[in-house]
Amino acid sequence: MRFNGNKVVLVTGGAGFLGSHLCGKLLELGHEVLCLDNFYSSSKSNIEELLDNPRFELIRHDVTQPIHLEVNEIYNLACPASPVYYQKDPVQTTKTSVLGAINMLDLAVRTGSKILQASTSEIYGDPEVSPQSETYWGRVNPIGIRSCYDEGKRASETLFFDYKRQHQLEIKVARIFNTYGPRMHPNDGRVVSNFIVQALRGEDLTVYGDGSQTRSFCFVDDLVDGLIQFMESNESICGPINLGNPQEITMLELTREVLQLSGSSSKVKFLPLPEDDPKQRKPDISEANLSLNWAPSVSLAQGLEKTIQYFRTALNF
Ligand code: NAD
Ligand code: UDP
User: Domain spans of the chain?
Assistant: First the structure.
């Protein structure tokens, strides 16, 4: 049933880090939000504050199984995003990306909904070009330990564009670069949460390899705005479009930022570099600029401060 004529928006993976922020923002905009999640890499605490909202509904469901719902828009975010989580059950990760995409695309066809896919910079693999623009086809190992995630996401992009061609579906494919902020899971193994939690606990910061590899980190509020602007863009704009912050930084530089902003006297410890770890990552966001009039506005220092504050409170430091 529709609420006051507003849109009914389905967010798969809605209890996750990005999904919970997206659900909150969509509720603020007046929509009715169906949050679908199987809690594989999240918990109800992320959406606790939304549960009392009469326009919010939680559905415990695995996207690898079909589901019948009446919706106007679908944001397909369901998929573990941290290497630790997506490598824990790699077969399930591929199933989530591929079967999840098929089930959500079928739902979009049946309901005539617009559908947005949360794709990733991982589809570029270990890139030979920098910055990465959408025209770059990528360099992905098809059989390595990251492949369940990379190839699963690549296959879902294929499915999205084939459903568009075959069923004239309105699709939006967003390639999301590393995003961070409050509600990241403290133990999910991603670098920003690892470094902040280690700094606050006075433990050594674990740098993998020599720390010269780069990433470009986008604050979650900027990213969520980009996703919503993309969903609301003209039908002709289907992507893929990179969404991320082009401010590139080495992991060693990141340790210094985190230590300085948290006031921690932790040391740095070097551990082996995981297999297939990309050497560099920096989005070319000119397409998002041009088509969506979008660019991030939160600097790394501002975003890290907010995230450090969140972990201080969440972990009682
Ligand atoms: P997350 O792990 O916090 O959230 C993913 C959510 O999907 C979790 O709540 C999890 O329980 C749910 N989920 C996993 N498998 C499911 C299944 N089979 N059925 C239903 N729910 C399932 O990760 P996140 O950072 O919020 O990422 C959200 C999406 O954005 C993912 O698709 C990810 O690939 C993509 N993305 C994120 C980043 C990033 O830096 N955060 C970068 C690129 C792409
Ligand atoms: N990394 C690190 N220490 C950690 C966790 C990660 O040095 O405790 C490195 C990791 O090897 C990678 C980068 O930080 O080069 C980003 O890792 P993350 O898992 O956050 O994201 P992804 O590799 O998927 O971009």
Answer: 2-180+220-245+281-296
Residue nearest atom 22 of ligand 1, based on CA coordinates: 78
Q: Are 303 and 217 in contact (CB under 8 A)?
A: yes
- Considering only CA atoms, which of 208, 190, 219, 242 is closest in space to residue 41? 190
What's the 163 CA to ligand 1 centre distance in angstroms? 22
Per-residue pLDDT of 68-121, as tens digits, reads 999 999 999 999 999 999 999 999 999 999 999 999 999 999 999 999 999 999
List pLDDT tens digits, range 167-195. 999 999 999 999 999 999 999 899 999 99
Calculate how far, in angstroms, residue 54's C-alpha sits from the geometric centre of ligand 1: 25
Q: What is the pLDDT of residue 316?
A: 82
Question: Annotated catalytic, 149?
Answer: yes
Q: Into which CATH architecture does domain 2-180+220-245+281-296 fall?
A: 3-Layer(aba) Sandwich (3.40)
Please tell me the distance between residue 17's alpha carbon and the centre of ligand 1 in angstroms: 7
Sequence-separated (6 or more) residues with CB below 8 Å from residue 230: 116, 172, 174, 237, 239, 241, 243, 288, 292, 294
Out of 149, 163, 180, 208, pick the active-site residue: 149
The token duo for 123 is 């589809």
Residue 28, number of CB atoms within 10 A of its CB: 8
Write down how long the chain is: 317
Residue 169 vs residues 96, 141, 155, 161, 163: alpha-carbon distances, Å? 21, 30, 17, 9, 6
Q: Residue 165: what are its φ and ψ, rounded to 5°?
A: -70, -40
Q: Whose CA is nearest to atom 12 of ligand 1?
A: 13
Ligand nearest to the CA of 21: 1
